[in-house]
């Protein structure tokens, strides 16, 4: 049964509301463990930044809230993915609707967690070390970093890493729904590279080329991986009649 545009918008509204509830609930729980979460966030700076500054009396409250919100957003990723993919599931073939959302949610969460871990263990230590050395080279003294700016930097890079790793899954779904083809992805490779580099410049919290490169290179690699996935999906497409066919080269 097809829904009207109003019905789709109403469903989307309730799914957004539920997603917001997930984040708020997870954030409230994370407030209890904020000190432990802060210790985890500080780990990539171990041996690089000796101490942090707090410049305003009320800044510590903002740090607690910001840290808890980030942890809540990470914890709520799985149910949020569930809401999103269940919203787009009706566009899939009727034979796959029962399993598509589960597969997509599981894949999205694994990719998101992999991106967060990649940013946390690979990108962050190198980025922090580079930026601190650069600052010391400019001033001649070790840089003094506020805790709120550090938390914002770490959370932004970790979250962006998780979202960037969704590129292969996006290529899979968009190819399956017929929005893109491998030929389109391959033929627009130069334009895609430009967009990815520009996107890395926008989402990177700093303006230095090194931090942008740390994001743009993985994005380009994931794009190429998405092209491979798109080719694999495109070889077996679903026609309107519901029968699968193998496309001949």
Q: Can you summarize the main beta sheet?
A: 2 strands, parallel
Average pLDDT, to the nearest integer? Answer: 85
Total count of domains:
2
What is the percent of helical residues?
over 70%
Number of beta strands: 4
Please give the alpha-carbon distance between the first and last residues: 36 Å
Low-confidence stretches: 238-249
Task: Write down the Rg.
Answer: 21 Å
What is the string of helix and strand elements? HHEHHHEHHHHHEE
- Strand numbers in spatial order across the main sheet: 1-2
- Which geometry do the CA atoms define? flat
Q: Would you kindly provide a written description of the structure presented here, covering whatever features stand out?
A:
- The chain has 249 residues and is mainly α.
- It contains 10 helices and 4 strands, in the order ααβαααβαααααββ.
- Helix 5 packs antiparallel against helix 6 and helix 9 (189-203) packs across helix 10 (209-234).
- The model is unreliable at 238-249 (pLDDT under 50).
């Amino acid at each position: 049964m097809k829904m009207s545009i109003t019905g789709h918008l109403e469903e989307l509204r309730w799914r957004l509301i539920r997603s917001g509830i997930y984040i708020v609930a997870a954030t409230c729980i994370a407030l209890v463990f904020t000190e432990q979460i802060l210790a985890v966030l500080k780990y990539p700076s171990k041996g690089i930044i000796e101490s942090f500054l707090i410049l305003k009396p009320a800044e510590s409250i903002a740090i607690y809230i910001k840290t808890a919100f980030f942890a809540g957003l990470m914890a709520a990723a799985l149910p949020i993915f569930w809401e999103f993919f269940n919203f787009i599931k009706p566009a899939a073939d009727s034979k796959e609707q029962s399993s598509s959302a589960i597969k997509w949610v599981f894949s999205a969460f694994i990719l998101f967690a992999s991106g967060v871990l990649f940013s946390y263990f690979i990108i962050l230590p190198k980025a922090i070390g580079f930026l601190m050395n650069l600052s010391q080279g400019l001033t001649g003294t070790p840089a003094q970093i506020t805790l709120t700016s550090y938390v914002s930097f770490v959370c932004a890079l970790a979250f962006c890493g998780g979202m960037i790793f969704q590129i292969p899954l996006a290529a899979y779904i968009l190819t399956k729904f017929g929005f893109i083809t491998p030929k389109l992805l391959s033929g627009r490779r130069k334009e895609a590279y430009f967009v990815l580099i520009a996107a890395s410049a926008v989402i990177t919290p700093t303006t230095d080329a090194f931090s942008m490169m740390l994001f743009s290179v993985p994005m380009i690699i994931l794009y190429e991986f998405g092209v491979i996935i798109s080719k694999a999906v495109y070889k077996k497409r679903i026609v309107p009649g519901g029968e699968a066919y193998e496309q001949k080269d």
